[in-house]
Amino acid sequence: MDPATGTAPLLGDFFRYADLLTDEEHEVVARVREFLRTEVAPVAVEHWTRAEFPHHLVPGFAALDIAALPYDDLDGPAARRLLIGFVALEIAHTDPSMNSFFGIHNGLAMGSIDLCGSAEQRARWLPAMARMERIGAFGLTEPDGGSDVARGLRTTARRVGSGPDAEWVLDGEKRWIGNGTFADLVVIWARDVADDSVKGFVVAQDNPGMTTSKIENKVALRTVQNADIVLQDCRVPESDRLQNAGSFADTNKVLRRTRGGVAWGSTGTMMAAYEVALAYAKEREQFGRPIAGFQLVQDLLVRMLGNITASFGMAVRLAQLQDAGEARDEHAALAKEFCTSRMRETVALAREVVGGNGVVLDYGVAKFFADAEALYSFEGTRQINTLVVGRAITGHSAFI
After folding, report:
1. Which cofactors are required for activity (predicted)?
2. I need a labelling partner for 225 at 20 to 30 A (CA). Which of 45, 50, 99, 147 fits?
3. How far apart are the first and last CA of the chain?
4. Residue 293 banded pLDDT, cuts 50, 70, 90
5. pLDDT of 222 over the 90 cut
6. Comparing 299 with 378, which gets the higher pLDDT?
7. How far apart are CA 331 and CA 252, in angstroms?
8. Residue 200 pairs with which residues in a beta bridge?
9. What one-character-per-residue DSSP string does 51-104 give?
10. Nearest residue to 158 via CA among 194, 119, 203
């Protein structure tokens, strides 16, 4: 129990990583957890089942004052990446869909503007986004481009005119764009036809050249509103081009930062599945006693806890490297690959403990089991992140 807030540690925090937080950081985490417990948890399954987004929760998220945490000068100095990670873990522990919504807005969209925008652009967009008065989305992935998007970006940008009154005309398609159906601002990445460089543009939802449609029939992160986006003669003023984005290396700065967030979200997801399985094992009786007393069940639970503890430690150390300015692409890539792989195994083990009841939403495991598949795939597949790390440790690139 944290003495400052009275908050009990999560059961999956076996090595007490939360002890690394300061009293003030514990207070932030406690505030987030209480909101999740009272407001998000009661409606999470209902909205997931209907594949609807709970828009009524956004003001509550805004009141937590956590969207500004990663950024200087919005609400004071930026928070430690450790605290930002614990916030993501807590949200994912309740609902991975809502953590994805928040991470897309807070990490990918705001991060693109923070890292690639001018001082004027940061001042124009980030304060309202930090207050969650304007929600952001991130448009990189395309229907025929995922892992090869760095080289195969097909959405084009064509400059018309010159000087400050110039416009850019965007044409192309994007897919799997989280928050895309309702975001006020969508960061679109496109290839400049003049010099073949990758540039970023902030496109308003009401731009007549951009149309969005919801992707239906998902089996993971169903609450997240992923969109197909079509850009046809979409005109964007020069003032809305991210002024410091001139290559995919700039795009990758954003991804390097947010891959660490996926590690935290994956850890929170598997912790939640473990806790459900542990509680179920203590209550479920077979052969006249709780199955928690069976050796094979304990083996499954301990394997889950080991996966969680190893992933938690990697996420914590990555956050420390980020705070020290020493995190590299390969650090974030290994954390994303390892934590999501261990999560995928852990939620499967949790479903095994719960048995046949693990395939219905009523028992808590099924939603985490399904959501894990999306977390495993986005922000770079396991194979692509493996190649990033492999290049770093061998000095040889295996990319084709």
Report:
1. FAD
2. 147
3. 51
4. very high
5. yes
6. 299
7. 13
8. 189
9. T---GGGHHHHHHTT-TTTTSTTTSSSPPPHHHHHHHHHHHHHH-HHHHHHHHI
10. 194
What the block records as the tokens of 133 is 């008065």
Count of Cβ atoms closer than 10 Å to residue 390 Cβ: 16
Specify whether domain 249-394 bears CATH 1.20.140.10.
yes
Average pLDDT, the chain: 93
**39: burial class by Cβ within 10 Å (0-12, 13-18, 19+)?**
middle
| Backbone torsions φ then ψ of 241, nearest 5 degrees | -85, 130
CA–CA distance, 310 with 14 (Å, rounded to integer):
10
**Which residues fall within 8 angstroms of residue 197, CB to CB, at 6 or more apart?**
191, 246, 247
* Rounded Cα distance, 183 and 295, in Å: 49
pLDDT tens, position by position, 123-155: 999 999 999 999 999 999 999 866 566 667 899
Answer whether CATH 1.10.540.10 is correct for domain 17-130. yes
Q: How far apart are CA 19 and CA 17, in angstroms?
A: 5
Same fold, 17-130 and 249-394: no
pLDDT, one tens digit per residue, over 31-86 is 999 999 999 999 999 999 999 999 999 999 999 999 999 998 877 788 999 999 99
What's the whole-model pTM score?
Answer: 0.94
Domain ranges in the chain are: 17-130, 136-246, 249-394
Q: What distance in Å separates the CA atoms of residue 53 and residue 46, rounded to the nearest whole number?
A: 10
**Listed residue (372, 385, 89, 145) closest to 256, CA to CA:** 385
**Token output for 48:** 């997931």
DSSP calls for 134-202:
S-EEEE--BTTBSTTHHHH---EEEEES-GGG-EEEEEEEEEEEETTTT-SEEEEEEEETTT--EEEEE
Q: Which residues sit opposite 197 in a β-bridge?
A: none
Extract the tokens encoding 276.
């459900």
User: CA-to-CA distance for 242 and 43, rounded, in angstroms?
Assistant: 37
The confidence score (pLDDT) of residue 7 equals 66
The domain 136-246 having CATH identifier 3.20.10.10: the answer here is no
Residues in the chain: 400
379: DSSP letter: S
Spatial distance between the Cα atoms of 240 and 347, rounded to a whole number of angstroms: 42
Please identify which residue in the block is written with the tokens 């928690």: 292
